[in-house]
Write a sequence for this structure.
């Protein structure tokens, strides 16, 4: 599941590693369901 790779990478890249439990809660709650395509698209863009 790509989201489990993207979110920790995003948190690490932003220095927001302490938020990992928050990311996990969002994943479990499904709150990222709508945001996932936009997040993947944004991270997939060059630069």
């Amino acid at each position: 599941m790509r989201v489990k790779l993207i979110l920790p990478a995003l948190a690490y890249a932003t220095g927001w590693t302490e938020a990992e439990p928050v990311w996990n809660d969002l994943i479990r709650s499904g709150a990222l369901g709508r945001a996932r395509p936009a997040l993947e698209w944004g991270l997939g863009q060059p630069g």
